[in-house]
Amino acid sequence: MRIICLRKEKLDPLLQVGAAIEDFTPGGIWKTQFHVVSMSDEQFAALKKLYGEPSLKTGYEDITPKIILNSAAPSVGFLYCRGGKIPNGTKLRAHYLSQIYNAEVRGSRVWLNQKSYSSPSEAARAITKTAVNGWNWWKYYDEQAGRWRNLFILRNQQKKTQVAA
Description:
Layout: E1 2-7, H1 8-16, E2 22-23, E3 34-39, H2 41-51, E4 60-62, H3 66-69, E5 78-81, E6 84-87, E7 91-96, E8 99-106, E9 109-112, E10 115-117, H4 120-128, H5 134-137, E11 139-142, E12 147-150, H6 151-164
């Protein structure tokens, strides 16, 4: 996880593509053009690739405290919800009305369009405006298989593991 200070013109394109970034200062720092946001290490690497190394010239700076950067292991955890758990870092995708929606589980929440939700169903409801079973609606990216799979498969695998134990 990174904390970044960046100019609004650098932030807007990221938000337009639906990056799971939380803006801690939506009105800007003291009503200036600068914003403080959180993003994943992968998003920070993409930001560096897009704009170059952090500097005054590139319009952004990594202000993540050293204690966080030097921590031994990245935070691990899960989003626990209705009969299953989804590991932090899980990427989610869904198709709805000819659009693709991408979300990510971070900090035990589903992040979709810079907003966090307590469950996959709640995030799906934000899109469809109707009650949806998120386990059936979302797909997750299975790193081992290298492909998108239905989210309910993840829950079913966990249930099989619990029965075997």
